[in-house]
Amino acid sequence: MLNGVMLLWFLLTAMALGFVAIDVRSMPMSRVMKWGFVLLTAYTGPIGAFLYVLGCREPLPGLHERYIAARWRQVLGSTMHCVAGDGVGILAGAVVASFLTLTRPAEIGLEYVLGFAFGWTIFQGLFMRGMAGSYRRALESTFLPEFLSMNLVMTGMVLVATVGRIAVGGAFSPLTPGFWFVMSMALLAGFLTAYPMNWWLVANGLKHGMMTVRKPAYGSDARAELPVTHPPMPAAPAEDRAGREKVARNEIVWMLVLSVALFAIAFAAQAEIKAVLG
User: Fold this and answer.
1) What contacts 24+ positions apart, CB below 8 Å, involve 200-207?
2) Ramachandran region of residue 205, left (φ > 0), alpha (ψ -120 to 50) or beta?
3) I need a labelling partner for 238 at 20 to 30 A (CA). Which of 2, 77, 263, 278 fits?
4) Where in the sequence is the domain holding 28, given as residue range(s)?
5) How far apart are CA 162 and CA 62, in angstroms?
């Protein structure tokens, strides 16, 4: 039965990936966000396509800015951006670990390091350098949000991947469909566990959410893109902004502790799960 479920999942993923890869090209978004949704759909199949349509796809021409203004859609874009970038490194770590036959703790460590490195230096630092002014500034401003979000991605991933490996059984090799099915479910779980943290990050201005980028309808260079625009937000008094900044500074330590603690609990729990179910 599990083989049938995996076959159906891969077929649905292929169709979903084809749809998103073609459709997203016409959406008024930056290239990194387009690639992000393509990668997310590759990881999470039809669920990724559903999130793309519900959370980002422009319903009618000219409505994208208003459509993505809802907070939950802003957070969806933030979480997608995180998981898309981290997922590349995590999958690379899982593949390398399988061929090196690393222990499970070492494998988790490798996945974390590669996932964080790719997500932070490429998807955050390199692709966001235009917004930050330079690559160095982009790295500095995105380190903390990436660290907090990455911890929650790995929290969900570690638990689901551990159970999935036991359920699939046999050698956990990238040459088998079970490997990719388990990693797909694990990345989906990582997306879900990272969403609340990204809500806090977006609400406190530590991460950007979904964005709109439109090409000019005039001039000879139709490929040029207009500057990135954010959904209109009501201006807040200076004292309110200062209050929110103080709250963010006070809360940030607790969020750091929370994210590290949750990942540590998941790391410890995976050994117990393996001992009980394995």
Assistant:
1) 200/251, 200/255, 201/78, 201/145, 201/148, 201/149, 202/71, 202/74, 202/75, 202/78, 203/71, 204/244, 204/247, 204/248, 204/251, 205/244, 205/248, 206/144, 206/145, 206/248, 207/78, 207/142, 207/145, 207/149
2) left
3) 77
4) 10-69
5) 45
Is 82 a domain residue?
yes
Tokens 């806090």 map to which residue? Answer: 200
Amino acid letter, 207: K
Q: Which of 27, 50, 69 is the last residue of a domain?
A: 69
Q: What is the pLDDT of residues 256-273, one digit of tens each?
A: 999 999 999 999 999 999
DSSP-assigned letters across all residues of 33-51 = HHHHHHHHHHHHTHHHHHH
Out of 37, 53, 69, pick the residue that ends a domain.
69
* Residue 229: DSSP 8-state: B
Q: What are the structure tokens assigned to 96, written together?
A: 């390398």
85 shares a domain with 64 = no
Asked if 191 and 40 touch (Cβ cutoff 8 Å), the reply is yes
Give the containing element (helix H, strand E) for 74.
helix 71-100
List pLDDT tens digits, range 17-31: 999 999 999 999 988
pTM over 0.85: yes
